[in-house]
């Protein structure tokens, strides 16, 4: 029995570390990390908010992910803006010196943000990114995220309120 528990703990640690440098490309569509455990079923202690509810196409805006309490830190992320066709749209901007996040390409370069390998001291309760919609977009988007407290505790499908993008 103890051997089985040790093996399970080892598998969780190895699996969690497998994506410590960001989401795999296989997660682009469903945003489900390939951790050896399932996503949490209880409501997420995180929210995604935007700097505006209406934005002109081609105009940058801010998107913030935040934990509801100081203990709800962000260890891992995957964030996209999704239009009515449910595909990633627009481009995020992340500083190359950002200790937590990096850009990822799912359909187009910079359409997704994921985490990079970092020390736990770099975990944040709140992170803010800049997103720019395409210059010709005329749609309603929602920001959808997968947010991990750690490798074994994560939530898929955290969404913002809708944002109207007008060309």
TrEMBL record:
Transmembrane segments: none
Domain of life: Eukaryota
Domain Reelin: 5-167
Keyword entries, A-Z: Antibiotic, Antimicrobial, Disulfide bond, Immunity, Innate immunity, Secreted, Signal
Keyword field contains Repeat: no
UniProt cross-references to InterPro entries, sorted A to Z: Ferric-chelate_Red/DefProt, Reeler_dom, Reeler_sf
Location in the cell: Secreted
Main location: secreted
N-terminal signal peptide: 1-18
GO biological process, one term: defense response to protozoan
Parts forming coiled coils: none
GO cellular component, one term: extracellular region
Similarity field: Belongs to the insect defense protein family.
Protein name: Reelin domain-containing protein
Organism name: Pieris macdunnoughi
